Structure formats: structure tokens, C-alpha cells
Amino acid sequence: MKKELFALTIVLLIFVAFPASLFAYQAWRTNTSFGFAQDDVRVIALTANVPNNGGWSPDTIRVNLGERVRLRISSPDVVHGFEIPALGIQVAEILPGHVAEVEFAVSRVGKFPFACTRWCSVDHWRMRGSIKVIDPNNPNPLPQSFAPPLYQQLKIDIDALHPATNVPTQRPSATRGTLLSPVIADDLRVNSPSDVFAKLRTNDALKTNSDSQLWDAIAFAWKQSAGDDAIARGQKLFARDCAACHGESGKGDGPAGRNLPGLAAMQSDNHQMLEIKRGPADFTDAPKMLGASDVLLQGKIIRGGMGTGMPEWRTLYTDQNMWDVISYLRSFVFEYK
Ligand code: HEC
Ligand SMILES: [Cu+2]
Q1: pLDDT tens-digit map of 39-65
Q2: Residue 188 maps to a domain
Q3: Residue with the nearest Cα to atom 5 of ligand 1?
Q4: What phi and psi, each to the nearest 5 degrees, are found at residue 90?
Q5: How far is the CA of 54 from the centre of ligand 2 (A)?
Q6: Do 324 and 191 share a structural domain?
Q7: How far apart are CA 325 and CA 233, in angstroms?
Q8: Rounded to the nearest whole angstrom, what is the distance from the C-alpha of residue 108 to the centroid of ligand 2?
Q9: Which residue of 99, 183, 277, 308 is surrounded by the most CB atoms within 10 Å?
């Protein structure tokens, strides 16, 4: 009888207590609810669902500074993409039924937004989350301070309507503009093309040039200051992030923009909300686009169009992404190839 009890104890030790202690050790070592250590890599399972089915799960990921992280991303529904722009991490495709893996080390404290990069559903752009990197030795660092965006520094009211005061009669062409290259001293970034035109028109040295020639010169100045590479990068971003609403050809006719509330402007004299137009902005609308400076457009893209359905991109876009996409937006009015 005693022998049997002894044998049973041994069996219990081998099959229950030993594995249990190993498991407890693992759990203690990684101190996390959803990960376990493997060659000092923290493995995190991330599920991608279309936004009205929950979006990213989890949508907030916490990791420690210096840790290696392996994300195992799976999608139960459709094809998604994944990007953490600030960390330069990308997974082009997460196919349904497959697990896509990406591994990286985090060497910076902060909160880094991530997003889906495929138009997985009408609400795709809502599919965002963030990864929080914490330094365990300094868990509450002072909040980072950011310079306010240019439109705030320059006190530009981005909600005011901004019609151009001058509009060309034919599409301005950067190619034709090379024939005439007046020095365009104005910073095209801060001034709208229409303001730049007005200044050129009062320049005595350009008296003999036609309006069309001046517009062509402005188109040329835009192409020169933006650069072909930036315009090409902007085109890719536009196709990925904006075309579903604003339309491939910029006309504001993308499928995901159909049921958006669109623009309502505050009428300043009686403070009434005035419905101007429904749906996403039409970038081929010359009076509207030529009346907007780059800084104004940047303000809209950074902040989003409060209540119109235009998402904010400040948290996802780097400065370069921002200027690249704005450069490309100009091509809907300026001919350049
Ligand atoms: C979910 C749909 C949607 C997506 C995606 C979207 N937009 Fe918009 N956008 C809108 C709506 C709606 C408006 C408001 C209509 C307006 O301002 O005339 C708008 C307005 C704008 C405006 C303001 C135009 C003006 O002159 O006032 C800019 C600039 C703009 N979007 C750029 C972008 C860029 C760049 C992207 C991609 C990075 C983008 N949008 C993605 C829906 C969208
Ligand atoms: Cu998506």
C-alpha cells in the first residue's frame, strides 16, 4: 500500500507538478497576459478584422523598451495590410487563413500608431491601433511636446471657404511653363497658386506675358519645387489611402465616399451651419484647389474634416508623407507629364 502511494506521488510529480512549475516559470519570466518568451522574443498575436467587426484585436499593444517583438498577424475575414509608419514596419498582405509574421526591436519610447493598408471595407480607414513602448525604469516620462502645425502657427482658418480669385481658362502646364521661367519669389507652400498669380500679374517685367503663360509658369514652379520623386511617392500614398473616397482621378467620386456627410461651412455673419456640398472634396475643381495654399491643405489632412468624414492623418503620416501627397494633389489641376 505504501509503495503504491509512493509511486503515485512520483507519477504526479512528473506529469503534473514539474510541467506546472515550468509553465509558472515561463509566465513569471514574461509577465504578460498574451505573450510568451521564445529566444527572448515577445510573441504577440494580433487579429485583423474589418472595423465594423472589431478592427484590430488587441488595438493597443504594450511592450518594453529594448524588447524584441514578433507580431503574428492573422485575418479571419479578408485581405488586410499592416504598417507602423513611425517605426518603418510593414506587412504588405495578411491573407485570410494565414499568419503573417513580422519581427522587430523597439528602441524608442513612445506611442506609435499602426494601421491597415488595404481597403478591406468602407470603414477601412478606421482600422487603426497603437503600440506603446514603455521604459520600465522610467514608466512616466515627461510628455513629448510637438510644434503646432503650420496652419496654426500662421493662423490660417482652415474652415473658411477658399475660392481662388484668379482661375485659368485652360489647364496650366508645367511643360509649357519651362518656356517662360519667371522667378517666382513667393513661397508656393504658404501662398495659394491664385495669390501667386495675382502677384505675378502686377509685375511690370511680365506685362507682355499672357495669363495662360503665367499659369504655366506657376505649374512649372510647382513641379520644380516638389520634384518628380515626391510627386510619384505622393501618387502611391494617394492610391493607397485617399482614392477610395476622393476617387482615382481626384474627382471626389470614390466608392467609400458616397455616404459621407461632406462639407458644411460656418456662415460667419449669422453663425449658421451651411451645407455646401456632400461627399469628399473634388481635387480637379480649379477654383477651389487654386485658392488653397499647401499649408491649408496640410491643415485639413492633419486634422481631418471635422464632421465631414475626412479622416485625420496626423498620427499616421510623417512630414514627408504629408508634403508628398499634397504635391501629388496639385497634379489634378496642373498638367506635368
Ligand atoms: C473616408 C473618406 C476619405 C478619405 C479616406 C480621405 N478623405 Fe479627404 N475628404 C473627405 C471628405 C468627406 C472631405 C470633406 C469635403 C470637403 O472638404 O470638400 C475631405 C476633404 C479633404 C480635403 C480638403 C479640401 C479642401 O479644399 O477643403 C483634403 C485636402 C483632403 N480631403 C485630402 C485627403 C487626402 C490627402 C487623403 C488621403 C491621405 C484623404 N483626403 C482621404 C473624405 C476622405
Ligand atoms: Cu483595411
Answers
A1: 689 999 999 999 999 999 999 999 999
A2: yes
A3: 242
A4: -145, 140
A5: 12
A6: yes
A7: 7
A8: 26
A9: 308
